[in-house]
Amino acid sequence: MTLLRQALRFTSPLLPFICRRCRTYSAQAGAVERVISAFRSVSGDEGVSVGSAVREQHGRDESVHSQSLKAVSKILNRLSGLCLNLRKMEVLDLHQEYFYVTMEPGVTRKGLNSYLRDTGLWFPVDPGADASLCGMAATSASGTNAVRYGTMRGNVLNLEVVLADGTVLHTAGKGRRPSYDCKITIKTSAGYNLTNLFVGSEGTLGIITKATLRLFGIPESMVSAVCSFPSVQSAVDSTVQILQAGVPIARIEFLDDVMINACNRFNNLSYAVTPTLFLEFHGSSKSMEEQVFITEEITRDNGGSDFAWAEDEETRGRLWKARHDAWYAALALRPGCKAYSTDVCVPISRLPQIIVETKEDLIRNNITGPIAGHVGDGNFHCLIVLDPNDPDEVQRVHSFTERLARRALAMDGTCTGEHGIGLGKRALLREEVGLLAIEVMQEHYKRYSALDFLTTRCQENKVCFKF
Prior knowledge:
By secondary structure, the chain is of the alpha+beta class. The chain folds into four domains: 2-85, no CATH class; 92-217, 2-Layer Sandwich (Uridine Diphospho-n-acetylenolpyruvylglucosamine Reductase, domain 3), CATH 3.30.465.10; 221-327, Alpha-Beta Plaits (2-Layer Sandwich); 335-428, 2-Layer Sandwich (Alpha-Beta Plaits), CATH 3.30.70.2740. The chain has 16 helices and 22 strands. The strands form seven sheets. A seven-stranded antiparallel beta sheet has the order 17-14-16-15-19-20-18, sandwiched between helices. Strands 7-8-12-10-11 form a five-stranded antiparallel beta sheet. The longest helix is centred in the last third of the chain and has 20 residues, at 391-410. It is globular and about 70 Å long. 40% of the residues are buried.
């Protein structure tokens, strides 16, 4: 494990720092030497490197190469404001008979599935990028097949977390082995669900150093399809009806005409430039026939056409690459501009209305905002492309994103299904959950971020950094 930052920029007296927000400077003689000494007292001389090659690689910060969880917890207890590089933590502990695997933060989604390739098991949550699985847990990642397999929140069984004071917590108990088949997890009503408290906490409550994840059997067959529609309404209506018919579809993704045009240009494709659904079916050969038949019937009743099927892995990969490249395809619509993505999520029954209204809002305000969505669970994204040097356009985009979020809240949805609150939606969080819920969250944060280790403050006591 490599610690890239020397210490908390102000609350720790060990380092000189510049607060980016307040632009104040504080220096103390011998601070760097004291930091290095503190690291060595925990990790030993062999665990600390200050060589020029190492410092050049890691932004000229001093770095610690701790080899144990105990050393990491001691460092957290002593120093704050640290940036952690966990890429070398990649221990795997597979239990095929229980359909679960435990790994450290260095293991990525693709890395895990490569490791599992000869076991008949896989981990299906797919946010698009080859992300760290512990990072996916920290952000409660989702993706294209959440409609069938759920999000990270439903697939994390246990976490090992280092709290801000250096305490090591196992959220479902140390050494607990969940005994279940691939569909039904073990029952428990023992205490609070601490695992779900940390899933999605984005590092504000502690550092995840190990995660136990639920695995699934690899489907016997997979078939993907693309289908074009005459309107947004007909495409989204088809989505709702497919789900209402009980089809256990694995993926169902919506791309509007602007997004399809961008994907065609970026990937040299020739899909019809109309609202489009990308679909995927998993199961046995026999069950797939029934799923495909019902889906074709529903989509044709809603004006669907131009079906393109993909059964072999290579063809399916090309099809889904077009979907996963949506961000870059959107950027290519306006070279030299920047992209900003926002998302909301609503009940499935309100999905047709909100997407239609959002499209109208984009057109009315002359905003380039291709839409792509995991519509199977009511979640969609606007990939807005704008000129950051145009104040008028920036303001129009800002106003649009607020209207979109409040439109979702008015439909009993959420202001963000995947992206999180960040800075831009803090006020909307209060509107969504209420003041009491905010106060409860703050109390939890205070309990877990002992000594304010997970928050950096400057001389004016303003929060300048949060981890």
